[in-house]
Amino acid sequence: MSASPVFANGRVLRYSFHERLGHWLAAVSYIYLLLTGLAFWSPWLFWLAILFGGGTVSRELHPWAGLVFVAATLMMYAMWGKQMHETREDEAFWRAVPHYIRNEDELVPSADRFNAGQKLLFWGFFWCGILLLLSGLILWFPQLIPWNLRYLRYFAVIVHPAAALLTIGLFIIHVYMGTAMERGAFGSMTRGDVSIGWAKKYHRVWYERLMRASR
Amino acid sequence: MSQAILEIRKISGHAGSVPGAGVRREFEVCKLIDTTTCIGCKACEVACLEWNGLTFSETTFNNSYQTMPDTQWNYWNLIKFNEHEREDGTLQLLMRKDQCMHCEEPGCLAACPADSAIVQYVNGIVDFQQEHCIGCGYCMTGCPFNIPKFSPTARKVFKCTLCVDRVTQGLEPACIKSCPTGCLHFGTKPEMKELAENRATQLREQSGFANAGVYDPSGIGGTHVIYVLHDATNPEAYGGLPKDPRIPWTVKLWKSPLKWLGNFAIIGGLVGVFVHYLRFGPKVIPPDDEPPQGGAPPQERGPQQGKRP
After folding, report:
1. Which of A40, B44, B181, B291 could form a disulfide bond with B113, CB atoms 3.0-4.6 angstroms apart?
2. Taking the model in full, what pTM does it have?
3. What is the complex's ipTM, to 2 decimals?
4. Which residue of B has its CA nearest to A148?
5. Residues with Cβ < 8 Å from A115, sequence gap 6 or more?
6. Which residue range is the domain that position A64 belongs to?
7. Is B301's CB within 8 Å of A176's CB?
């Protein structure tokens, strides 16, 4: 019998220290990127750049924060990539999303460690992150793009905001669900643990596998 | 221009019309470059550096008279030389003074995200305000003429100002002042347009240049720098002058439909999650009635004695 995954206080470890570190590295860099990016997105939000030290400072630091975000995303990919693969249960989950939205959770199929929505969030950020990196590198050094390759710049100025908008959509839903909608989810990403009730409710397949493994 | 800003528009308690109303000529300025009388002496290049206090840059020899391949952040005025082979096999040495075209609809200004970094004056001059520039380089992407250039030292973007400081004092730009052949002219847009059309007609009717014409591209609403070309059907031959310059369509798409769609989606998303919370609220976790399956019961020691890893 291996050690129990349940702590003495009756809670279950959901995210290890490295998982939490990777997540918050991405979160902090993303929020900085979002706010400085919005400053360049609309003149009505340019005051955000002033908040972060002025337009010039924001322009200088935004690409570096982007590199931090990419590194954090790769870190999460290394930890979670395999667990994010699509499974047969995901289709059933998507069909049950209207119930999920209406909090009719008894009609939602039980999920493994990550449900289909979390997988969408992960891959959405992953692929948008790649687009943002490629277009961002061009926007970082436009002066190095020769005139006959100017179409790269034309590509970058439209791909960068379009991909960013997709991530903003994912971000709004993710933050809402992780703080207001699913009580306990925020704690799983800060302290790392969840109650057994939480684990059973949202990720019963994962929880039961965890228990079997420790038996 | 300096006099024009003090022109009176309204007068209080005044009987009759405002003196001088409708009398003053056009405000919009224009530089006319007649490539057919340019001799490639580069006096304009030197005058530009002199007036604007720019340093002399290193030249690049490329089997041509051209000073360097392109304008630079500190070299705003460059004559482009091209040995053009005509259809009958004869050669023509084309020389075109390249600089900012001061577009009526500037792509640089459309693409710029920094408040007040690029302005367009009523007289048509498009000017960069480096104290507001954040060095993002979007203007370089918006420009169809490859004019704004990034300074690695200042980390800001520079270009020709059409000598706005001289023009506001009633002087012509430095390049015009220095031209020895008179191929450069400066005046109001209608005057310069008329002069250019007259010269093009002369070239067509008397000099055998059947395709001679004026370059004032309409895709960007016209420019405040116009050319007379021997062959207006082939502007590309003049050191890559674009035939139909336009603001890149991706810049337009980004600055208008995508922007509105994106703003709508962001605000819609925020409102959506808020309304969801009001309607459905948080999810409720049922009280934990089952003991954990397998492993030690909670009251006994867990891994690391209850410490969180």
Report:
1. A40
2. 0.88
3. 0.91
4. B146
5. A90, A93, A202, A203
6. 14-100+107-214
7. no
